[in-house]
């Protein structure tokens, strides 16, 4: 099967068919998500939190993103892959933005890039699209601006903020973005944005009115995700408990010499053994 295309994503919105997106950061996560039938894989800069152990996404570099995107692309050959432009790899001028985004496609083998911001990044989005690089927008709670926003807070609760987010979404669509992520915005606002746009919205903590949903791999699997409990996450497995238990059993086996057993060991040829040791 061929990866989804941005044209088909728009059709899915028109047909009311929800788009499923999940983050992936390496070969096994991408392979399993593809096998499970995910529509879009996002190599998110959330890898800073869930894979690299940073407190925010701010320390994530473009090299980090390229490295992880490559591994994802090796595993998921039939899935549309979006890679995040990390902090300050755009906003320094169009030429830098184009050069950096190009690396995510050329070296990281992503199909599209995602960047955070609304009307203020519309020029950069337009430049990317003009250069043939599909762009997914990302508004609402934008983690790269966490210090400016004053924490991981729900956005669009008040009228003025909500109006600004609607304007931002429209600016991104006008600039040529093929989709927009709405992160931690109130449900009625996300619904209003989704119906105001012809491109699909992908929600995270944005309620039921979006055209698609995205969550973080480590969150839905409870895979040592460092976050506090998040209301908007639904967990589908408890891999953390499973993995910790399995490793604990391995440690206990080594200590008690229950592992390895004869079946795990390699015998020598009887004749060679006899000649060596008599
Ligand atoms: O980096 C990420 O995982 C994201 C999603 C939460 C949208 O940007
Ligand atoms: Na991100």
The global form is: elongated
- Average residue-wise pLDDT: 96
In the sheet with the most strands, the strands line up as 1-2-3-4-5-6-7-8
Rg over CA atoms: 22 Å
- Low-confidence sequence ranges: none
Query: Structural class of the secondary elements?
Result: alpha/beta
The N- to C-terminal Cα distance equals 61 Å
Largest pleated sheet: 8 strands, parallel, barrel
Task: Walk me through what this model shows.
Helices cover about 45% and strands about 15% of the residues. The model has no long low-confidence stretch (mean pLDDT about 95). It has about 280 residues and is of the alpha/beta class. It is elongated and about 85 Å long. It folds into 2 domains: about 230 residues, TIM Barrel (Alpha-Beta Barrel), CATH 3.20.20; about 35 residues, no CATH class. Helix 2 crosses helix 4 and helix 6 runs parallel beside helix 8. An 8-stranded parallel beta barrel has the order 1-2-3-4-5-6-7-8, surrounded by 7 helices. It is built from 12 helices and 8 strands. Bound molecules: 3-methyl-2-oxobutanoic acid and sodium ion. 3-methyl-2-oxobutanoic acid binds next to strand 6.
Topology:
Layout: H1 6-14, E1 19-23, H2 27-35, E2 40-43, H3 47-50, H4 62-75, E3 80-84, H5 94-106, E4 112-114, H6 122-130, E5 135-140, H7 146-149, H8 159-175, E6 179-183, H9 187-196, E7 201-204, E8 212-215, H10 217-220, H11 239-256, H12 270-277
Parallel strand pairs: 1-2, 1-8, 2-3, 3-4, 4-5, 5-6, 6-7, 7-8
Helix pairs in contact: 2-4, 5-6, 6-8, 8-9
């Amino acid at each position: 099967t061929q990866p989804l295309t941005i044209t088909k994503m728009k059709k899915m919105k028109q047909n009311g068919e929800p788009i499923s997106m999940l983050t992936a950061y390496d070969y096994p996560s991408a392979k399993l998500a593809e096998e499970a039938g995910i529509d879009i894989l996002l190599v998110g800069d959330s890898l800073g939190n869930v894979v690299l152990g940073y407190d925010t996404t701010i320390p994530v570099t473009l090299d980090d993103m390229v490295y992880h995107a490559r591994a994802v692309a090796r595993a998921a050959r039939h899935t549309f892959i979006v890679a995040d432009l990390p902090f300050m790899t755009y906003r320094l001028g169009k030429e830098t933005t184009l050069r950096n985004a190009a690396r995510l496609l050329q070296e990281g083998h992503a199909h599209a890039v995602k960047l955070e911001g609304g009307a203020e990044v519309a020029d950069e989005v337009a430049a990317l699209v003009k250069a043939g690089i599909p762009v997914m927008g990302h508004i609402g709670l934008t983690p790269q601006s966490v210090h400016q926003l004053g924490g991981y807070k729900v956005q669009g609760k008040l009228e003025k903020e909500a109006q600004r987010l609607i304007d931002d979404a429209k600016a991104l669509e006008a600039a040529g973005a093929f989709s927009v992520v709405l992160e931690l915005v109130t449900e009625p606002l996300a619904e209003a944005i989704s119906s105001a746009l012809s491109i699909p919205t992908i929600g995270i903590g944005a309620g039921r009115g979006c055209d698609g949903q995205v969550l973080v791999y480590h969150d839905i699997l409870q895979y040592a995700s460092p976050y506090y409990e998040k209301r908007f996450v639904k967990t589908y497995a408890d891999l953390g408990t499973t993995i910790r238990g399995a490793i604990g059993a391995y440690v206990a086996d080594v200590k008690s010499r229950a592992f390895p057993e004869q079946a795990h060991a390699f015998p020598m040829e009887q004749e060679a053994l006899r000649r060596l040791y008599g």
